[in-house]
Amino acid sequence: MNQHFKTFLLGVAVLFSGLVSAQQLQGRVIDDATEDPIPGAVISIVGTSLSVTSDAQGYFVFTETIAAGNQQVSIKANEYLAKFIPIVITLDNVVDLDPVYLRIDAITQEQAVGIIRLTENDLAEDNNASTNLSGLLQATRDQFLRAAAFDFSATFFRPRGLDSEDGKVLINGIEMNKVFFGRPQFSNWGGLNDLQRNQVFTIGLSPAENTFGGYAGVQSINMRASQQRAGANISYAAANRSYEGRFMGTYNSGLMSNGWAYSISASRR
Fold first, then answer.
1. 208-239 burial, b if ≥16 CB within 10 A, otherwise e?
2. pLDDT tens, residue by residue, 93-133
3. Contact at 8 Å (CB) between 98 and 108?
4. Contact, 118 vs 101, CB < 8 A?
5. What angle do CA 42, 256, 261 make, to 5 degrees?
């Protein structure tokens, strides 16, 4: 083997050692508030064409080669704030980003404000106003609409002059507005507050996941047991309007190893 060939092999070895890549980059993307997995998030290496997508459980794995050294990972998902994480790729370690928390984009939420509107007919349909829970009125974090719902009472206050039949309320994709007069009757599911935390709001005629909204938008409630945070919750509330005292207990199994999940919730006022 001549000297020139040895020099060539040495140069190739030095160049390859600078470009050698780590075994893997892996991790999981979850919601900062609910700790639910975020499927469909795009994870990419900044400055390269390498990218993967998180699966249904929020997991992702890079199997392609990544240049050793300092890198920056970009994590982006619809309706969430993007996150950039600096990492160091080495030869003999797997970089594990589990968990990566993404926070809901507050600006997107503010643009999709909504509020539940109740009329006197809504409250009087069953001749029992106590069956309507004021807790269901917290449709948005907007301070003005919260005050309109709680302080002024949504019975007499109509944002933009719209009525309750101008919007749609869905539970697990099923429309809950009454066929006869178009208004939702919240007393039908009034004792299940703990299972109604996963809600999505759209304003006006913007398209929702399952339907197109009316003039007052869409409130979509996801009550699937698989989407509830695992654990138990017991609460007691006191009031001087619809009821004097309310006891509520809820247990969520979370997604089990067999792919099933169940939730049990009961309340008494």
1. beeeebbebbbbbbbbeebbbeeeeeeeeeee
2. 889 998 999 998 866 555 555 545 555 555 554 444 444 43
3. no
4. no
5. 95
